[in-house]
């Protein structure tokens, strides 16, 4: 019988994870089955445990279950703990392990695929929810000269700063960003999902090399449109992050890290 994996979320019908993991398995010469499971609001935990009982070896977790997956696990990585969320689970030696590869996936996409290392750069991260929590440790480890987190609700940003006290980390209100410029600006808010624009002053884009939108498949979102109008040359959405986090999970489960380039080329849709 083939090794079994799955992604669980709600809704799950648009997921690209089975396609991505299928391509990875093919490229690595591995045989596995990777399904998509529609999660039940009442029965998510039983579904995960049932999948394990049926022989499943690992799962990817997507919205809205990342926190519940984290809580269900017996053991959690440091980055999953900071994110308070799991995007990958592994069943091993009778234990359920939680990981979070979203942040490292984002970092790899920016540094390796888009060739914009964070070292000594001024980086602006918009938002203070789960996505930013996941990105925080990998971003700080990459050595930016400054990492600024801007959020509307300052209490959330303050809570985050209190958890991660780092000399290069600063929090800010949007209105305080006037007259500051950033090399890399990442929109990790959920604003684009509803076609909204974070209240970001145009001036932040004056010397920006890369504007990155975490949402993917949404085309030129209001945030990317604003960056483009201010002359930012490099615009990206989160499809590369999706593929890179999948590669990290694949490596964690299978012990082999697949090459991501061909899959990125296949799944990238030009931003218009
Ligand atoms: P996720 O897990 O995707 O990060 P989340 O935890 O619900 O989702 O967090 C959503 C983030 O998007 C929050 O930082 C939220 O800002 P507030 O905390 O100030 O509410 C941010 N967000 C959502 N809509 C926004 C908008 N229109 N402008 C700016 N920020 C927005």
Tell me about this structure.
With 272 residues, the protein is an alpha/beta fold. A six-stranded mixed sheet has the order 2-1-3-5-6-4, with helices on both faces. The chain has a six-stranded parallel sheet with strand order 9-8-7-10-11-12, with helices on both faces. Strand 7, helix 6 and strand 8 form a beta-alpha-beta unit. Helix 5 packs across helix 6 and helix 5 crosses helix 9. The longest helix has 16 residues. 43% of the residues are buried. Bound molecules: 2'-monophosphoadenosine-5'-diphosphate. The site of 2'-monophosphoadenosine-5'-diphosphate (ATR) has 14 residues, from helix 6. 2'-monophosphoadenosine-5'-diphosphate (ATR) binds next to helix 6.
Main attributes of the structure:
272 residues; alpha/beta; 6-stranded mixed sheet; 6-stranded parallel sheet; binds 2'-monophosphoadenosine-5'-diphosphate
Supply the number of helical segments.
10
In the sheet with the most strands, the strands line up as: 2-1-3-5-6-4
What can be said about the biggest beta sheet? 6 strands, mixed
Small molecules bound: 2'-monophosphoadenosine-5'-diphosphate
Would you summarize the structure shown here?
The chain is an alpha/beta fold and 272 residues long. It has helices at residues 17-28, 44-53, 66-72, 78-83, 102-113, 130-141, 154-163, 222-229, 239-254, 261-267; strands spanning 3-9, 32-38, 56-61, 75-76, 88-92, 95-99, 122-126, 146-150, 169-172, 184-187, 210-213, 234-236.
Indicate the topology.
Layout: E1 3-9, H1 17-28, E2 32-38, H2 44-53, E3 56-61, H3 66-72, E4 75-76, H4 78-83, E5 88-92, E6 95-99, H5 102-113, E7 122-126, H6 130-141, E8 146-150, H7 154-163, E9 169-172, E10 184-187, E11 210-213, H8 222-229, E12 234-236, H9 239-254, H10 261-267
Parallel strand pairs: 1-2, 1-3, 4-6, 7-8, 7-10, 8-9, 10-11, 11-12
Antiparallel strand pairs: 3-5, 5-6
Helix pairs in contact: 1-9, 5-6, 5-9
This protein binds 2'-monophosphoadenosine-5'-diphosphate.
């Amino acid at each position: 019988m083939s090794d079994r994996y799955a992604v669980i979320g709600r809704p799950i019908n648009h997921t690209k994870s089975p396609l991505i993991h299928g391509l990875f398995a093919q490229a690595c010469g591995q045989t596995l089955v990777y399904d998509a499971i529609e999660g039940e609001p009442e029965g998510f935990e039983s579904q995960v445990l049932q999948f394990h009982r049926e022989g499943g070896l690992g799962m990817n977790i997507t919205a809205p279950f990342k926190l519940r997956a984290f809580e269900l696990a017996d053991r959690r990585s440091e980055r999953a703990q900071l994110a308070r969320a799991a995007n990958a689970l592994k069943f091993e030696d009778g234990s359920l392990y939680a990981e979070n590869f979203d942040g490292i996936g984002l970092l790899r996409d920016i540094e390796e695929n888009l060739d914009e290392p964070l070292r000594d750069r001024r980086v602006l991260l918009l938002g203070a929810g789960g996505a930013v929590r996941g990105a925080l440790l990998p971003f700080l480890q990459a050595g930016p000269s400054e990492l600024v987190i801007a959020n509307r609700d300052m209490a959330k940003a303050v809570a985050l700063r209190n958890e991660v006290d780092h000399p290069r980390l600063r929090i800010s209100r949007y209105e305080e960003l006037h007259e500051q410029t950033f090399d890399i600006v990442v929109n990790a808010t959920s604003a684009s999902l509803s076609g909204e624009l974070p209240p970001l002053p145009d001036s932040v884009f004056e010397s920006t090399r890369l504007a990155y939108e975490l949402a993917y498949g949404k085309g030129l979102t209001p945030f990317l449109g604003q960056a483009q109008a201010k002359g930012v040359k490099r615009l990206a959405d989160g499809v590369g992050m999706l593929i890179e986090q999948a590669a990290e999970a694949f490596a964690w489960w299978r012990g082999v890290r697949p090459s991501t380039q061909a899959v990125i080329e296949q799944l990238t849709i030009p931003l218009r």
